[in-house]
């Protein structure tokens, strides 16, 4: 940029946090400035900030403006090892030159500013006239090492000398890696636009490999374009329907859309994605039935499907019953004849009294469970535990034995995986003692031991996962629900209890 009152400018004046500074201290240059804002909307994503373009360099005397550079060091970039010829310059280098122009003076009708833009003596643009308070960028490439000269030369009929508001010079590095295949790249562009994602999603999704888009895993080949195998958009503020573009990612194996605000039904095309192994739709606002093909894949173990915390989603593959029909059914029960209800209450009371004498035996029968040996429970490998916990992604508790992680079995059932930490004082003996103790204690309000892992140095216990809080919270919740029951609903519960339901 030309010399201005600002020695250096960057964010927030530049939205991309580029460092703009004065280009040398040439006594043959002077500045013309404006306090009015410069429109940068028409120079795309590589735009210069408006504040920088409010100042322009122009020759003090004369009709031309020249500047030059001869090596990468001149533009504050070290030479690339792949193009360095050992003498400090790069014979095969290519430069990208960006020149920014905006007229900062309101010119009378009889005054014009016209000039030619030459690079190494070759005219790139002729009779160029900057627009008043509207920025434009002129792009050109320069090949080879050695000195390069850019000249802005006023035309013979120009009444004012040329101006230059800012410039950028980039060294272009060759990219040996193949780009993303066109189908996957197009799908990712559509997903980015659909959900207006604010990420580092610029350029090619998978290439260069070091700058692949955040949340993507790509598979690379020496001869074929890259393809996308995993996409993590968890907690990305997604809303609306699940976009059809996800279905175009034919090599996708893992898709995580959890913890967003996606709504509508689960689309059928998700079941047709041939490589998909894990689909996480949990904690959204999805509704309706789950496509039967997705349920079948979950049942045969070819797909891990997570759909928890979607209040209006049916998990049985059947058509969900509209709320209006349920409301009508409740209304019909509420308007039943009072005499019939009173009669049923009397019958229920008699039956309950008759069964109270066997209350203790009934309670024990309902709560007892057959004893089992810990080694009759399912045995997991450490590899199994990594799979069902998504590599121990979500920690849900801590204990003296170790950390507890949330996991899902092949059928989607949630489990709690309690891992023995390396620092735990408990060893094999304590581990086996805890497992055997758990097999002797059974109650309907206590979680069951599903299995264990004793894989070399890895020890773990796998329990049922009691969602919705601990036992105390759940009992309080049940008490609140019971207090809110109508007397019609209490009647039904009493009849069910009397009939052993």
From TrEMBL:
Transmembrane annotation, as ranges: 330-353
Domain Protein kinase: 390-501
Membrane-topology descriptor: Single-pass membrane protein
Pfam hit, one: PK_Tyr_Ser-Thr
Keyword line: ATP-binding, Leucine-rich repeat, Membrane, Nucleotide-binding, Repeat, Signal, Transferase, Transmembrane, Transmembrane helix
Molecular functions (GO terms): ATP binding; protein tyrosine kinase activity
Catalytic activity, as annotated: L-threonyl-[protein] + ATP = O-phospho-L-threonyl-[protein] + ADP + H(+); L-seryl-[protein] + ATP = O-phospho-L-seryl-[protein] + ADP + H(+)
A single GO cellular-component term on record: membrane
Binding locations of ATP: 418
UniProt-listed InterPro entries: Leu-rich_rpt (IPR001611), Leu-rich_rpt_typical-subtyp (IPR003591), Malectin-like_Carb-bd_dom (IPR024788), Prot_kinase_dom (IPR000719), Protein_kinase_ATP_BS (IPR017441), Ser-Thr/Tyr_kinase_cat_dom (IPR001245), Tyr_kinase_cat_dom (IPR020635)
EC number, UniProt record: 2.7.11.1
Compartmental location: Membrane
Top-rank taxon, per record: Eukaryota
Keyword Magnesium appears in the UniProt entry: no
Listed name of the protein: non-specific serine/threonine protein kinase
């Amino acid at each position: 940029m030309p010399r201005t009152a600002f020695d250096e400018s960057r964010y927030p004046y530049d939205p991309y946090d580029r460092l703009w500074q004065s280009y040398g201290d040439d006594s043959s240059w002077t500045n013309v400035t404006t306090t009015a804002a410069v429109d940068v909307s028409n120079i795309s994503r590589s735009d210069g900030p408006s504040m920088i373009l409010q100042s322009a360099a122009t020759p003090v005397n004369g009709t031309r403006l020249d500047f030059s550079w001869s090596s990468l060091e001149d533009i504050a970039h070290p030479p690339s090892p792949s193009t360095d010829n050992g003498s400090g310059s790069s014979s095969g280098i290519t430069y990208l030159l960006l020149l920014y122009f905006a007229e900062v003076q309101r010119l009378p009708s009889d005054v014009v500013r016209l000039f030619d833009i030459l690079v190494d003596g070759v005219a790139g643009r002729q009779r160029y006239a900057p627009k008043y308070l509207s920025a434009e960028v002129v792009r050109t490439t320069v090949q080879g090492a050695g000195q390069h000269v850019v000249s802005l030369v006023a035309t013979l009929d120009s009444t004012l000398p040329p101006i230059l508001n800012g410039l950028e010079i980039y060294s272009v590095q060759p990219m040996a890696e193949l780009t993303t295949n066109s189908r996957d790249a197009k799908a990712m562009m559509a997903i980015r636009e659909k959900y207006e994602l604010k990420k580092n999603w610029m350029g090619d999704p998978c290439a260069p490999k070091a700058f692949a888009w955040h949340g993507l895993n790509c598979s690379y080949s020496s001869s074929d374009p890259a393809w996308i195998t995993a996409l993590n958009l968890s907690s990305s503020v997604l809303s609306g329907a699940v976009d059809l573009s996800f279905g175009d990612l034919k090599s996708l194996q893992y898709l995580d859309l959890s913890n967003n605000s996606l709504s509508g039904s689960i689309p059928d095309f998700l079941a047709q994605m041939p490589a998909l192994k894990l689909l996480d739709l949990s904690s959204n606002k999805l509704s309706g039935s789950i496509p039967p093909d997705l349920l079948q894949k979950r049942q045969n173990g070819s797909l891990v499907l997570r759909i928890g915390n979607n209040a209006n989603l049916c998990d049985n593959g059947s058509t969900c019953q509209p709320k209006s029909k349920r409301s009508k059914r409740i209304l019909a029960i509420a308007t039943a004849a009072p005499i019939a209800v009173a009669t049923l209450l009397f019958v229920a009371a008699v039956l309950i009294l008759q069964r109270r004498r066997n209350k203790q035996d009934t309670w024990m029968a309902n709560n007892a469970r057959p004893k089992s040996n810990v080694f009759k429970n399912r045995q997991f490998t450490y590899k199994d535990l990594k799979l069902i916990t998504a590599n121990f992604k979500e920690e849900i508790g801590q204990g003296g034995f170790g950390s507890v992680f949330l996991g899902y079995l092949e059928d989607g059932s949630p489990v709690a995986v309690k891992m023995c930490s390396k620092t735990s004082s408990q060893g094999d003996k304590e581990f086996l003692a805890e497992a055997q103790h758990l097999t002797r204690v059974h109650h309907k309000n206590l979680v069951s031991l599903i299995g264990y892992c004793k894989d070399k140095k890895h020890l773990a216990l796998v329990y049922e996962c009691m969602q919705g809080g601990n036992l105390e919270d759940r009992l309080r919740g049940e008490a609140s629900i019971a207090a809110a029951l109508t007397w019609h609903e209490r009647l039904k519960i009493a009849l069910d209890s009397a009939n052993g339901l």
